[in-house]
Amino acid sequence: MTTATSLDSILVQLEQVRARRPELRFGQLIAIVGSLAEDETGHSLWDVDDADFAVALDRFMRDLTGAGQSADSHDPAGDHQA
Question: Which residues have C-beta within 8 Å of that of residue 26, sequence separation ≥ 6?
Fold first, then answer.
């Protein structure tokens, strides 16, 4: 996968996360995914390559999906706002 293709894929995933969690500011989203990437690679965010960032973003999306399904099973109304 080329860098441009990888970046395009990352941007699509970021758009999907924003649709699911519009309350997250962009900086918060990057910080969360960056921390996941750092944890998974052992590198600082500066040294995380696009492919590793994409893997961390995919993990975050799976976590969101799992948390949403789990919350939906406990909240029949589907209202998760406090």
Answer: none
